[in-house]
Amino acid sequence: MIEQLPFSLPLFWAGVLAFSILVYVLLDGFDLGIGILFGLNRNEAHRQQMMGSIAPVWDGNETWLIIVGTVLFGAFPMVYAIFLSAFYLPVALLLVALILRGVAFEFRYKDHRHRWLWDLGFIAGSVVAAFVQGAAIGAMVAGIAVEDGRFAGGPFDWVAPFPILCGIGLVLGYSLLGAGWLVLKTTGRLRDWAYRLLPRLMWGVIAFVAAALLLTLIDNFRVVDRWLAQPWLLGFPLLASAAAWGLFRGAEARRDWQPWLMASVLFVTAFAMLAGSFWPWILPYHLTFDEAAAPEASLSFLFYGVGLVVLPVILVYTGVVYWIFRGKVSPETSYH
Amino acid sequence: MDFDPITLSRLQFAFTVSFHIIFPAFTIGLAAWLATLEGLSLATGRPVFRRLFDFWLKVFAVAFGLGVVSGLVMAFQFGTNWSELSTQAGPIQGPLLAYESFTAFLLEATFFGVLLFGRERVPRWAYFVSTLMVALGTTFSAFWIMANNTWMQVPVGYELVDGRFAPHDWAEILLDPVLWVRFPHMLLGAYLTTAFCVAATGAWYLLRNRHAAEARVMLRMGLGIAAVLTPVQIGYGHSNGEYTAEHQPGKFTTIEGRWQTEQPARLVLIAWPDSANERNAFEIALPFLGSLVAQGNLSSEEPGIVTVPTDERPPFLIPFYAFRIMVGLGLMMLVISWSGLWLMLQGRLHPPAASAKATTFGSGDPRQTEASVSNLPRWFLWSTFLAWPSGFVAVLTGWLTAEVGRQPWVIHGLMRTANAVTPSLSSGAALTSLLAYLLVYTLIFSAGTLYLHRLLREGPGDERPDPSSTETGNERTPRRELAPGRPLAVGGPDPGLGSQHPAPERSSDDLSPGTYGGTA
After folding, report:
1. Which residue ranges run through the membrane (chain B) (predicted)?
2. B94, B262, B167, B69: which is closest to A75 by C-alpha?
3. Closest CA of chain B from A33, distance in Å
């Protein structure tokens, strides 16, 4: 039965993994971004609108992180084990951040006296979650110590200039997605505010990309060789530049849908560039996706249930629910 | 106790999983309860079901949120702290957990958004379907978790390939008879937890003479469900004992508290172990009953702890006592729910006709109004109210029995817990994360409990215990934010409509538009 498939199961699951990461980044990206921007806006009415714009969907968005984790566990258990032990403290930090951020959606409306505390948790949680994700990706790119299929480094290996830069970069990037989402979902002064933020955040992201490129060239990561060997990869940065231009234009012309869409395109191209630069490594320079894959019995069990049935159903109902909550969040019908 | 990475990781896992299970134990049942209420509301059109739904949805929102965020930690902890287990058993455990996140988590989370914010945006049938989807999601979640845990308790359908556990036969793993007694046991545990919370809330309101209409529904349904499910649950509990006796002699003999093999075996009720001498330093035991419980006769030979090698024995005290607490609570649930059923069958849920008539004229005497709300004895209402935590404690002690009882194994008979821990993990890192979780969980648990208590104290939005006795109802509840000048007002967003239709059950509050943002 397996032989008849036009692709190998490890390839299929690497694809699902990549897809899940991308969906996670795009969806939780804008709502983490709103959590970050929340800290820059002290107006309570605006804050309620900001939260209201993500309240019905944030939980589903964040669930894609668990999807990523369990796909790794199910299809690439070695990577799951190595990655999570390598990032022990950052992962703990990420989880604590997501906990504080998650409870804020309910708690800030239940307790006016301590609202400042839950708001602080919401902001700090969002910033830390974004930063840690960026830093982890940066540390992966820079390479982690693996011996004998196990992590062989220390708990602070990820504290280095490149990962930290990537952490800051992702905070900026998610803010950009968040500002795009605000423009799309809100009206009035809040939307004006988000429109003003967009070009500044875009410049911030551009500065980050420049700095990251510079560091990469200085350290001469192996990835540069890949770029030189496969110059078609450079198409992605070109596409990204077009998206950045589209974002500036959209913000200027005040086309509400454009900045969010362009920011998302930006993330898609960045992700494609990242994946293309390392393919077929799943844990750069230690394990390829083929080597890391679980036995075929695990992958086919997942394939016939999740791959063929459940995943399409998920895409349908996620789409339906986003459609149900389409349109602007009006200031009157804010959360709670 | 050494604070090495293994001990710290075990503490952390025990703490985070115990914290987490409290919320699913509640929300699995609550999701089913909400779907039932919405279905009843749809079928009968009675506003009381809608009021109950809106009220319990607020409770669900807080509990579900806490369950989600604490569950997040569980999904990653296998990799951070137990990477050897993940590497070696990942091919089996990973797909099971992946199935959970694909079939359960996304379903729950996505339709939960519709429950909270979609009331005004989707047709009623679609809203009802959303409640069903959330309930289905929580049930799926329980299934996959039990499948995963059962495989660790009684590993089947695997083969060893290069030192790793590869799945050999998924049907054997998913159709394992052990799974099919443990999964219902967990599901029923969750339903009973919720049933007792619901019934206790009803009892609480009747004791305080508030929300009588809602309280009666909660008592009737909560106790009714518990009366039916508790005996079934006790049956499944017994089946759990049977698989344990067959597959996990270390756990079974420890639960029984029996050191030496006996024929016929006694039933040890209470004991204090003397592990060095392989006997109990103190015990109260009943003759013959050990054989009766295990084999259904009075003469069978039953093994003792000594039949298990010393380095494969679990600790004594936790499984032994946790098991007894769980069983005791199960029996208590049976007594309360059947007493309740008995009282309700006698018609004592409703006030006697005479006193109901008396309150029509708005008596100010509290004792008399109390009589008007129901005719249930106060001792019964108090016991039901005080039984609210019984489900939570039973679920927790049940898990303690199962998990501590299987030590020193993480995969029973195949992999020791001590060999499962992440090799690169340092004590400092493990201690840091443990303290961080302790701190954050304490914070959110205290706040969450406080907010839940507030919600429950406030009660359903509509303060209208009985069409004929509302004035008394309002006088007795000054906390409510209702304007005293509008004694018959429908709570919250739409007082105008409600006051035009004061008495009948089928008032127009189902049409009130202000419920967007459900958990207001």
Report:
1. 12-34, 55-76, 96-118, 125-147, 186-207, 321-345, 379-400, 434-452
2. B94
3. 19
